[in-house]
Amino acid sequence: MSITIQDVEHVAKLARLDLSEEEKIQFTEQIGAILKYAEKLNELDTEQVKATTHVMEVSNVMREDEVRESLPIDQVLKNAPDEDEGQFKVPAVLE
């Protein structure tokens, strides 16, 4: 796969970048080199490789859900800037 200056100009326009002619040429060469290197991966035989989402085995590290006592309401509201009838009172965000 090769990349053209028009491709770089298109991506620059999408990203709202104003590139000089020198930068367009430079990015065309650099992106072309990256794509050429990535094409080497197509040469690898991956038929016997199991698909993975992580390089290492990952297990669930979350703790078990346990029912336990809540904090007392007066302790919860102790640092609240304002409260009303046992609830946090905050400025309205919608009109």
TrEMBL record:
Enzyme class: ligase
Sorted UniProt keywords: ATP-binding, Ligase, Nucleotide-binding, Protein biosynthesis
Annotated region (Disordered), positions in chain: 74-95
Assigned EC number: 6.3.5.-
InterPro entries for the chain: Asp/Glu-ADT_sf_sub_c, GatC
Keyword Protein biosynthesis in record: yes
Keyword Nucleotide-binding attached: yes
Chain's role: Allows the formation of correctly charged Asn-tRNA(Asn) or Gln-tRNA(Gln) through the transamidation of misacylated Asp-tRNA(Asn) or Glu-tRNA(Gln) in organisms which lack either or both of asparaginyl-tRNA or glutaminyl-tRNA synthetases. The reaction takes place in the presence of glutamine and ATP through an activated phospho-Asp-tRNA(Asn) or phospho-Glu-tRNA(Gln).
Family: Belongs to the GatC family.
Subunit structure: Heterotrimer of A, B and C subunits.
Record protein name field: Aspartyl/glutamyl-tRNA(Asn/Gln) amidotransferase subunit C
Organism encoding this protein: Marinicrinis sediminis
Gene (UniProt): gatC
